[in-house]
Fold:
Amino acid sequence: MNALFSTAPGTGVTPGENPASGAAPAELILSENEIAHRLEAMETSGAVACAAAFRLIRESGASPAYIGNMINRKKIKIIRCQLGIFGYELPPRPLRAADNVTPKMESAIRERLVEDRLPCRDSWEIAEKMDCAKLSVSSACEYLKIKISQCQLGAF
Structure:
């Protein structure tokens, strides 16, 4: 499994990561200044897409919490959530309830609920494990009337 998605079960938090602080990981591939420069280069009209933020996460070695904290400090808006939840100006947003949900998908979702909600990171892990689109997991959640919580970037 990709190290980006290694979490303590049911918490949505990488062991050793303090999501509230957004502190820099011990070993960044890029310097904090280079990360800030790249983030500013990605910014368009005061916003950065979720996918672009995660591309920066992969390139920099930073955690999602660290990049999310930097985005927040720079007062940049996050748009085009990869789960289809927020950041789409023109309707319709891409997230729609699935027509049905397989028992395997429902079980995978329900096993990871925290206070009746599915953490964002867990939805990504389910998509990776089941080899499906992230939007398929969030659509299944819509069908099951389960909210997704704990955005990895801190947007919700």
